[in-house]
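Q: Here's a chain of 310 amino acids. Please give me its 3D structure as C-alpha cells.
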Amino acid sequence: MDNSLSPKMDFGGITKTEGVTYSKSNGDAAVAALTNADFLRASCAEMKLGVGPRDHHECPHRVTFNYYSASDSATLQQAIHATYRHLHGNCYVMDNERASELESQLSNGSLNIREFVRALVKRDFYKDRFFSAVAPFRGIELAYKHLLGRPPLSEQEVAAAISLQAEHGYDAMVDSLIDSAEYTEVFGAATVPYSRAWTSASGMPMINFVRMAALEQNFVTSDRNNGSASILLSNLAKGTPLPIKVSKKVNFVGVSAAWGAGKPPADFEKLWRGLALVGGAHLAGMLVNVLSQMAGIHALDRIPAMFLGL
C-alpha cells in the first residue's frame, strides 16, 4: 500500500513509527543488578526464550527481539534528537535547555537509551511542562504516550497510575512504566520510544488507533498546544466519541519530466500545443491586418492597438 494513501499519514504515523536504536555498550561484560527490575531482566535473558510473541507471565521482562544497535556519532545524534522530539511531544528544545550531562553519559556508554529516557522524564524541564502544568489525567495519558508509545487502555489503568503517583511520587510512576514488561519487550535498553499504536498490536483493542490519533492530532502539532485537560477521559470513562483534528490535505499535481519512446511528457506536450495554437492565432491576425493595409482597407487598423491597451 502506498504510504500517501494510508490514514496513518494524516497524523504523522508513518514518519513517527520508526524506532531509533543506539548502544555504546555492545559486547561489554555483565554488571551487577542494582535494582529489582535489572535483576528480573538479567534472569529472563538467561532463559533464552525464542524471539516473537509470548505470554508475559512466562517471563515478564524478557526482550523478545534482537536488533543491531549502532554506536557511531551520527546514530548518537539521531537517537538524542528522536528522544527529545518524542518525550517532549514534538516541542523544540533550545540548546540551553538540553541535558548536556546526560547526553555525555549516553555518549561514553555509562547510560543506555532506557536510562537516558528515564533521566530526561524526571528532569524539571519535562515535569514543568507535562506534569505540574496539566491536569492529573492529562499528565498520565502523556506519560503513557511518551514512555510506552500508546494511549492508556482503560480508565482503570489511568487511575492505578494516579494512585501510585499520589502514594509514592512522580518518580515511582515513571519507574513503573519504564521498568514494565511492556517497555522492556517493545523498546528494550537501546531503542528510543516511539508512537506505536497505529497497528493492531497484541493485547490492544483497535480503539487505540483512534485514541492515538486524537492524542497526536497531526504531524506538526505539539503536546503543549493540545491543552492541559485530558483528551481521552470522556472516551475512557463513558465511551464518548473522540474528536480528531486532521489537517487539510494538499493535492499536488505530479508532472514527469522524463521523455519516453522519443516523445515529450504528456503534460508538456499539451502545453506546447496550447502555446502553438495561441501563437498561430496571433500570426494569422497579423497577416490579415497586413493584407488589409495593402488592399487599402483601414477598418482593422485599431485592432493591434486594442490588444496593446492603447
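Q: Can you summarize the key feature?
A: Residues 274 and 280 are 10 Å apart (CA to CA).
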